[in-house]
Amino acid sequence: MDKITLTIDGKEVAVDKGATVLAAARAAGVTIPTLCWLEGVQAIGACRMCVVEVQGARTLQASCVLPAAQGMVVKTHSPRVREARKMILQLILSDHRMECPTCARNMNCELQALAKEYGIVDIPFEGAKSSVRIDDSSPSLIRDASKCILCQRCVTVCHEIQTVGALFPAHRGFATTISTAFDLPLGEAACVNCGQCALVCPVGAIVERDDTEKVWHALADPDKVVVVQTAPAIRAAIAEEFGQAPGKAVTGQMVAALRRLGFDKVFDTQFTADLTIIEEGNELLHRVQDGGPLPLITSCSPGWVKFIEHFYPELLKHVSSCKSPQQMFGSIAKTWYAQQIGKKPEDMFVVSIMPCTAKKFECQRPEMYDSGVQDVDVVLTTRETARMIKQAGINLLELEDEMFDDPLGESTGAAVIFGASGGVMEAALRTVYEVVTKKPLENLDFEDVRGLKGVRAATVKVGDLDVKVAATSGLGNARVLLDAIRDGKADYHFIEIMACPGGCLGGGGMPIPTNWPVREARARAIYEEDKRLPIRKSHENPFIKKIYDEFLEEPLGEKSHSLLHTHYTKRGV
Asked: Quick check: do 3-77 and 213-564 share a fold?
């Protein structure tokens, strides 16, 4: 590609033709502040924080949308630029409800950080303010229009990455707001609750619903047996909330911290991830052998399931009837485990710690009461869990490692990799191959389905059958596969789809920021833990064998079907 040379703050910089001034500055090691810009996704110049001074230009220019030109001379921090940015911040803050000490994004807010960086001590602009409009209709997300700075990041992610289109700008001028179709409450819109909007929001205008008080109340109730399950992705990310770099797995310390919070038992969602593989693997074999609808598509991601319910209901027959590991755990905890300890389902209180805001919606679905009561009582995100640990004065990083409790804490490497995009597919292949061939796999690592971006496809020889598989994450990528299925162009047996880009490691409830380098670091931690575990195949988990012998009887049997499988709902758009 052709190169051009420009001067930034007195330094010559060579960049590819077509690069923006913002990209050129970053290549030169110069940081230009942004609020609306999202790398590789959005460059609209809406916030104007990235303005620079260009020699020969009459006005300051937004560097995120300004193409770099040969011989251009740019100043990024001249007095004129700094004063302009300061005024822009003051104007944004003049219509921003500033309750920083009580805001969920306090100390992790891009607007707050810039205000500090630019020394904003007063707001000289007075006048009308946007009304306080808090939308708490969603079980997963809370929107506060009075904190919105109209950066449109949420709109871009919802439209361009997730292709859901639940949010968009409405009205003009001072009345502009981010809204839903017909200004419906978010809980009534065609929102899939994925929370990617909350991940990219630079302020506290969209946050997860805080359910921590429900958990504190349950922990203080002497009549409740309060158990907690933790999703695979949590162990690879929660340390970030305590100042650690992404990619540090703290499984044992996380268990110790949860035990100190007062949970009666600390279990692992990976147990029911292994259970999911047994049920879903047998479902795949049943469909292949008996002519059921193919491809079979995984059902672990509630955001993805709601997406197909809204936008492709005619393809619901392709989705596995298996519940997600979270919901399988709730059913098992309030039936089999409750019987083991002599308790009734209503005596149990099940808490899930998930990377996903859509899990909050999932646990409240009317289909999720197979134990006789709500199977999972409360879902906490990674961020909420970290807040609880801090509130209790527990320093997670100083704790000694502890083990999960048996029996619902025993899991395999196959379950660990559920957290990464392609992990469910890989785990299923490890088991399906050995069930069909009766031979051990020589190589457990299916590299072709690994990776965080795009659609990955592979053909795996399972006995006499060439099994064609695909894995992807992000609902925009899911739409590509679904269109191919609808048009009869998807020649696959098995497809894994995760709602969030990168899979659960990029879930809407994970630490902020979550970007591609962060996702990749978390994925490395997940795969390293898989390699360290003594058992790496779901069907070799001894407690999985035990639960079938003592309770479930057989995969896809009457009892397992009633507790571990579900159905779906056709929804409107």
From this structure: no
CATH 3.40.1390.10 fits 126-207, yes or no: no
SS3 content of the chain, % helix, strand, coil (to 5): 40, 15, 40
- Three-state DSSP class for 219? helix
User: Which residues, 6+ apart, have CB-to-CB distance to 21 below 8 Å?
Assistant: 6, 8, 52, 54, 61, 63, 66, 67, 68, 72, 74
CA dist list (Å): 108 to 241, 364, 541? 10, 30, 40
pLDDT value at residue 334? 98
User: Exposure string (b/e) for 226-258, b if CB count within 10 Å is 16 or more?
Assistant: bbbbbbbbbbbbbbbbbeeebbbbbbebbbbbb
Report the distance separating Cα 480 and Cα 23, nearest Å: 30
Q: Measure the CA angle with vertex 362, ends 356 and 367; round to 5°.
A: 160
Query: Over the stretch 417-427, which tens digit does the pLDDT of each residue have?
Result: 999 999 999 99
Task: Decide: 371 and 327 in contact? Cβ < 8 Å.
Answer: no
Give the pLDDT of residue 573: 80
Token duo for residue 70: 């040969």
Distance between CA atoms of residues 428 and 371, nearest Å: 26
Domain ranges of the chain: 3-77, 126-207, 213-564
d(CA 198, CA 310): 21
Single-letter amino acid code for the residue at 78: S
Q: Which residues are catalytic?
A: 280, 283, 300, 320, 359, 362, 367, 504
Alpha carbon 375 to chain centroid, angstroms: 22
User: In the 8-state DSSP scheme, what is residue 67?
Assistant: B
User: Cβ(372)–Cβ(498) under 8 Å?
Assistant: no
Q: Could you report the per-residue pLDDT of 365-394, keeping only the tens digit for each?
A: 999 999 999 999 999 999 999 999 999 999
- The residue whose two tokens read 């602009």 is 125
Q: What is the CA radius of gyration of the chain?
A: 25
